[in-house]
């Protein structure tokens, strides 16, 4: 290595604006002033999705038509949140496929017997027999109403 | 160990989840534009309805046999598929989504698991949560899991939809049962050559000498042979991004005018470009093809395709659309009734690490423009912003005369539950 002792160092100083290149722009925010006292306490905003849908893959929606479940709070035009992953149990409200059509009723299990209980005094409970074409399609977890 | 989970008659099963009355009835799903049969339920297969049957030719067949016909409802099938795949990925971290209705699962470190029972658990969960019936085949290699799956599908009563090849005895029995044309990855041409060599079953195939297979065919067939022997050579494919992107359509009516065709391929190219941008890829090759109406035998038949290579990888709708238009102009022939055209993009690379070019490069203004178009279309609905060479006044509609509702992707289309029709107290 040879040292060039008699060569002085020179500096190139860019002159902003000289070639119309514009000024240097800082993209990142420069913090000034007092930091927000809420910063340490930030939380996710509430989401209805996470409240109403516990199992995304198994959740489906359906629209109610009719009033046989009105005493359970399911009225005409309400939106049902249905979770297929839940196990059908006594007293749960289920969407069933009964003899060719969808229906929603409260499940009543009495020993070996299964009844579909409407929640409207004008309707009779339905006893499920081996004659019926019957499938429990999913369990209703929430009802969404427009007011 | 590997498992192949395959949804039974997936499209028909999706329709049945939301319309259980279809259970037990023959169901057929038609391709885009209601062209031909692309999926059938077991009942429809039993009637002898062939795959690819042109819908117009089978109208009376459908009617006579009470076949329930549906236009393809891809929003529904896509959503149901993603539910199934998400559920499958709860069972192992190593999953390869092989197609819309099948996936390979790999079980590493599951030595203490009874995989047979695990298979039933997989099947039951998918069925309960989504309503989609599946078959699960389990084996020491991917190819054997595929064979096991075929057995589970063929013998639902005996297997309960799950079959595992976990002994040498079962493997040999399965291979002897599998005819060569049913082996995964054996195409028509290969099948012919194998049958010439007295190779009728998968078992005959693995009896062939390794060296001969490698010399006569290729490394792929050799890997397949090893896999069938129980030595895993076909690996899990984790590649997510598509290697080719295509938009192809049959036209509602035949087109003869070059202007119309230009408009179509421009639209196809922009829709391909959108798919490309959605997966953060660019491409440097574009193929345009067009085809006359096969069923109009009295008019001239013509089919052609043209490949255009683009000097630098791009995801710009503008550039791809111009290239597509150039390609179609070069293969267009007058006097032909065109029924189908399409745009295919290949040479796909990730957008953010492609090589820089010395002499040609993309117009830097395209990138922000495309981004803006995508944002606007996302917010205000697909195809709100179009290129000027696309038809702005007319919306080309797919023929979908038998479309079922989009039960899971549109709030207006969700199922309605009757709470009225049951007996009222006297």
Question: Would you kindly provide a written description of the structure presented here, covering whatever features stand out?
Answer:
- The complex is a heterodimer of chains A (147) and B (426).
- Chain A is mostly beta strands and 147 residues long.
- Helices cover 3% and strands 32% of the residues of chain A.
- A 7-stranded antiparallel sheet of chain A has the order 1-2-7-3-4-5-6, with no helix packed on it.
- Chain A is elongated, with a radius of gyration of 34 Å.
- Chain B has 426 residues and is of the alpha+beta class.
- Helices cover 38% and strands 21% of the residues of chain B.
- Chain B contains 15 helices and 13 strands.
- Chain B has helices spanning 10-18, 42-46, 59-64, 74-88, 115-130, 142-154, 156-159, 168-177, 188-196, 202-207, 210-216, 219-229, 258-278, 317-331, 366-380; strands at 2-7, 27-30, 37-40, 68-71, 94-99, 102-106, 134-139, 162-164, 245-255, 281-292, 303-314, 338-350, 415-418.
- In chain B, the strands form 3 sheets. Chain B has a 5-stranded mixed sheet with strand order 5-6-1-7-8. Chain B has a 4-stranded antiparallel sheet with strand order 9-12-10-11. In chain B, strands 3-2-4 form a 3-stranded mixed sheet.
- In chain B, strand 2 (27-30) and strand 3 form a beta hairpin.
- In chain B, helix 4 packs antiparallel against helix 5 (115-130), helix 11 (210-216) packs antiparallel against helix 12 and helix 13 (258-278) runs antiparallel to helix 14.
- Chain B is globular.
- The relative contact order of chain B is 0.11.
- The chains are: A mainly beta (147), B alpha+beta (426).
- Chain A binds chain B through residues 55-58, 60-69, 74, 79-80, 84-85, 95, 97, 100-104, 118, 121-124, 126, 135, 137, and chain B through 20-21, 83, 86-87, 125, 128-131, 407-408, 411, 414-425.
């Amino acid at each position: 290595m040879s040292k060039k002792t008699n060569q002085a160092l020179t500096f190139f100083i860019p002159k902003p604006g000289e070639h119309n290149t514009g000024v240097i722009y800082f993209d990142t925010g420069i913090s000034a002033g007092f930091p927000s006292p809420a910063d340490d306490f930030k939380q996710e905003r509430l989401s209805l999705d996470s409240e109403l849908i516990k199992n995304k893959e198994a959740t489906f929606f359906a629209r109610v038509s009719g009033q046989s479940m009105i005493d359970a709070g399911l009225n005409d035009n309400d939106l049902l949140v249905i979770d297929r992953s839940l196990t059908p149990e006594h007293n749960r409200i289920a969407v069933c496929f009964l003899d060719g059509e969808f229906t929603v009723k409260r499940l009543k299990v009495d020993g070996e017997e299964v009844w579909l209980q409407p929640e409207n005094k004008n309707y009779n409970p339905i006893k499920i027999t081996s004659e019926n074409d019957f499938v429990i399609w999913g369990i209703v977890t929430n009802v969404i109403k427009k007011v | 160990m590997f498992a192949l989970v395959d949804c039974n008659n997936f499209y028909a099963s999706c329709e049945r989840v939301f319309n259980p009355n279809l259970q037990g009835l023959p169901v057929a799903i038609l391709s885009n534009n209601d062209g031909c049969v692309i999926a059938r339920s077991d009942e429809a297969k039993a009637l002898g309805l062939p795959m690819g049957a042109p819908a117009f030719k089978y109208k009376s067949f459908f009617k006579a046999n009470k076949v329930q016909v549906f236009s393809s409802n891809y929003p529904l099938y896509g959503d149901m598929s993603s539910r199934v795949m998400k559920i499958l990925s709860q069972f192992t971290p190593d999953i390869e989504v092989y197609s819309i209705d099948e996936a390979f699962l790999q079980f590493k470190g599951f030595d203490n698991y009874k995989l047979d029972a695990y298979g039933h658990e997989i099947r039951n969960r998918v069925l309960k949560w989504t309503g989609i019936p599946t078959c699960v085949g389990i084996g020491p290699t991917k190819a054997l899991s595929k064979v096991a799956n075929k057995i589970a599908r063929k013998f639902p009563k005996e297997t309960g939809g799950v079959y595992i090849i976990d002994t040498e005895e079962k493997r040999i029995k399965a291979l002897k049962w599998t005819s060569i044309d049913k082996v995964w990855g054996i195409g028509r041409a290969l099948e012919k050559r194998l049958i010439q060599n007295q190779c009728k079953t998968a078992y005959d195939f693995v009896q062939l000498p390794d060296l001969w297979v490698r010399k006569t065919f290729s490394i792929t067939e050799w890997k397949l042979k090893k896999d069938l022997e129980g030595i895993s050579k076909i690996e899990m494919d984790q590649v997510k991004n598509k290697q080719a992107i295509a938009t192809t359509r049959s036209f509602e009516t035949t087109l003869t005018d070059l202007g119309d065709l230009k408009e179509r391929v421009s639209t196809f190219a922009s829709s391909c470009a959108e798919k490309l941008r959605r997966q953060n890829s660019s491409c440097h090759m574009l193929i345009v093809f067009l085809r006359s109406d096969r069923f109009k035998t009295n008019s001239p038949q013509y089919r052609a395709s043209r490949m255009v290579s683009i000097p630098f990888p791009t995801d710009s709708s503008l550039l791809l659309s111009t290239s597509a238009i150039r390609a179609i102009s070069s293969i267009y022939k007058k006097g032909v009734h065109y029924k189908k055209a399409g745009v295919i993009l290949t040479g796909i690379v990730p957008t953010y690490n492609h090589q820089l070019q010395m002499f040609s490069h993309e117009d830097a203004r395209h990138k922000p423009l495309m981004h803006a178009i995508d944002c606007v279309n996302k917010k205000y609905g697909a195809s709100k912003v179009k290129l000027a060479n696309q038809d702005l006044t007319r919306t080309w509609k797919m023929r979908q005369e038998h479309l079922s509702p989009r039960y899971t992707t549109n709030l207006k289309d969700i199922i309605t539950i009757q709470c009225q029709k049951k007996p009222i107290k006297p």
